[in-house]
Amino acid sequence: MMVSPLCMGTMTFGWHPEDWGSDAQTGVRIGKKALDLGINFFDTANVYARGLCETVTGRIIKGVRDKVILATKFHGRMADDDPNAWGNSRRHIIMQCEASLKRLKTDWIDLYQVHRPQPSIPIDETLRALDDLIRAGKVRYIGTSTFAAWQVCEAHYIARELGLNRFVSEQPPYNLLDRRIERELLPFCRTYNYAVIPWSPLAGGILSGKYLGKPREGRYVKSDPMNRWNRETERVVKRLKKIADKLDCSLTTLSLAWVLHQPGITSAIIGARKVTQFKDLVAATELKLDAKVLAQIDEIIAPGTNVGKYYEADFGPNALPI
Length: 322
Known about the structure:
This protein is of the alpha/beta class. The protein has helices spanning 24-36, 52-61, 90-104, 123-135, 149-162, 185-191, 219-222, 231-246, 251-261, 278-283, 291-300, and strands spanning 6-9, 41-43, 69-74, 109-114, 139-145, 167-171, 195-196, 268-270. 37% of the residues lie in helices and 11% in strands.
């Protein structure tokens, strides 16, 4: 499948605006604008607003379903009173696929992704369930999100051993505040030809530069449990802003363009709360960064390092931080 270099993320569509998202009507308007700009790749998940974001996404793609590459995910908890309403078990996967299809008002999902790893569930159980969905025509391709390299590698060879459809993509966090996927995950994906679909390329808005002032809105204004906006991230953002100013572009455009310049990146997931934000986002697909600029960025935030925590998941029993 051929996808646009930018993927429209719909995680914020359908929330109350005070919860750093966009209401359903605004979400539909933003999604339609993405389509007008040539973005044919949309990513959502069942857990986003517990289904509401999928419902909004279904409204966006109505009438153009055949032209849209639609991705969604499963794993997150969908009910507080049911211990089985989450995870990567066969029961949950089949149930959530059916529910997502209804909310999205479609007969198939182009890319169905495991939202997070769950080492307590054997990966062959997950793969067999997903393989059944592919054979039933409800899913076209399958992928992972925020897996460790060893977990994707394990799944790759178990699928090969059992003759099952294998994962074709990984959706990791990747931005100029957290480059840890460069250590093992990216090399694996490039070696085995996995598509890489980074989420949070702007670090949840931090790399737009808006937190350098005192913003009234933004996801980290009200809550920042992982301390993503700290002295180190502020230092990095200030130095990156100087490079953006020299290039006569916004920090948003520079940060997103840097992700798109990295070898092996397929399509970066963007988010928007306003239609006007597309200007800086689309500009990133046209900005060319030469070797000198890329080297300057490496001096600010070294390859494989991080100053913010994004690449975090259950990477296995007793796993040390990557």
